[in-house]
Design a protein that fits this description.
By secondary structure, the protein is α/β, with parallel strands linked by helices. It has 16 helices and eleven strands. 55% of the residues are buried. The structure holds pyridoxal-5'-phosphate.
Length: 400
């Protein structure tokens, strides 16, 4: 295994839950109402893996399976569809309560939006969500991808009618390139990460993600997870969900653990440095977790994580690969979850944490034991089928 598991605790986690409200339950209910208006909306399944829980020595193990989200094989369409809806709503003066799929497709709105072009950078899943939303609403989309992106992911975006291409830049430079296009061509940048001066649209995208947390709460019924594991690329998804759960549970907030690949652990490094600054990673981030291969934290996400996340973990690719195998080859009686490299990162981490004897200190630090109830989000299915087979069938991948 190249590299090892590293973890740091958040020294400044906050008990002031008021800052989480923008991603809280009330906002999430508005977002979900909007998503529900899409004809292909249905809640994704929350799978309870009882036998895995027993095997790992925890009381319960839940995994929210996002592979059936809007037919896109990943959760990301939640953010793209909500930010585009909000953008058009603002442009056309439609109040949030009236923002629906049907309204956005109406003749009067189409007249206002047919000249628009949305542009974004993506490692696959976000761009697919933007392309899908644009196609649904009859708007143009241009999507740029970093070098090394999977052809299958590119083709899936093109199939949705977007103009898409792979650049020779890494993820963060591809984002800068898309931002430059907005300036030069008058397109609208819909990026799933924020930086100083570009925060409104990413905040809408993050709010979009809260639908999956709100669904999970309903599916858990009254059961409260004790530990929630969230994978991070730029940390927008993890930040939004950490905010949601902080607002929802307040003082009873579960322990929130953020998981990143060690080749792109910008959030772990930012937390570890603990100097009030954001720390970035440059160059190629050669990890199988393509969706998490981001070197610059999202400012809005980090604001939430710095308050409401409890631990930050950096781990090698082999652990995500193990998570894919564990979910794809369940113990008898458990349901199967097809989970891609980024989707399975958290399940892989929990499996390693609970079964590797040398991690006893970390289990004790995180307070995870036979009474714990674990919640993970499998944020994607097999979005790169060739890689999925290479890893799950052959046990091989490029960063071995
Ligand atoms: C499948 C998957 N999971 C998790 C993430 C992480 O989201 P974020 O970049 O907001 O941290 C991504 C990002 O693209 C993703 O594609």
């Amino acid at each position: 295994m190249s590299g090892k598991i590293k973890a740091v605790a958040n020294q400044h986690s906050s008990k002031d839950y008021s800052k989480a409200e923008i991603f809280g339950k009330s906002q999430a209910m508005l977002v979900k109402k909007y998503h529900k208006s899409f004809p292909t909306y249905h809640p994704t399944e929350l799978k309870k893996l009882n036998h895995l829980a027993e095997y790992l020595g925890v009381d319960a193990f839940y995994v929210k399976d996002e592979s059936s989200r809007f037919g896109l094989n990943a959760f990301k369409g939640l953010g793209g569809s909500y930010c585009i809806g909000k953008y058009i709503g603002k442009k056309c003066g439609i109040p949030e309560e009236q923002l629906t799929y049907e309204k956005l497709k109406s003749e009067e709105v189409r007249k206002e939006t047919e000249q628009l072009t949305f542009v974004t950078a993506t490692d696959g899943n976000h761009g697919r969500g933007i392309a899908w939303t644009a196609q649904e609403l009859g708007i143009k989309a241009v999507v740029y991808m970093p070098n090394g992106s999977a052809e299958e992911r590119l083709e899936n975006i093109k199939k949705l009618g977007a103009q898409a291409s792979i650049t020779n830049l890494n993820y963060d430079d591809t984002v800068r390139f898309a931002a430059q296009c907005e300036k030069e061509k008058g397109w609208v940048l819909v990026q799933d990460t924020a930086w100083k001066g570009y925060e409104k649209i990413p905040t809408w995208i993050m709010q979009g993600y809260t639908t999956m947390a709100l669904e999970a709460i309903a599916q858990l019924q009254k059961e409260r997870p004790t530990h929630i594991f969230l994978q991070a690329g730029v940390g927008a998804m993890a930040g939004a969900l950490a905010g949601f759960f902080a607002d929802y549970y307040q003082k009873a907030k579960p322990t929130i653990v953020i998981v990143e690949p060690n080749k792109a652990d910008c959030i772990y490094r930012t937390a570890g440095a603990d100097d009030g600054k954001i720390h970035i990673i440059t160059g190629d981030m050669n990890t199988i977790m393509a969706g998490l291969a981001c070197g610059e934290p999202c400012t809005v996400g980090w604001e939430m994580l710095s308050r409401y996340a409890d631990y930050f973990v950096s781990m090698p690719d082999a652990i995500a690969a193990k998570g894919m195998r564990v979910l794809g080859n369940p113990l008898p009686g458990d349901e199967r979850v097809i989970s891609g490299e980024s989707g399975a990162a958290t399940t892989g981490f929990v499996t390693e944490l609970m079964t590797n004897e040398s991690l006893e200190y970390l289990r004790r630090t995180l307070g995870i034991n036979e009474e714990s109830k674990v919640l993970c989000f499998s944020t994607e299915g097999d979005t790169d089928k060739k890689n999925y087979r290479d890893i799950v069938w052959n046990g091989t991948y490029s960063s071995f």
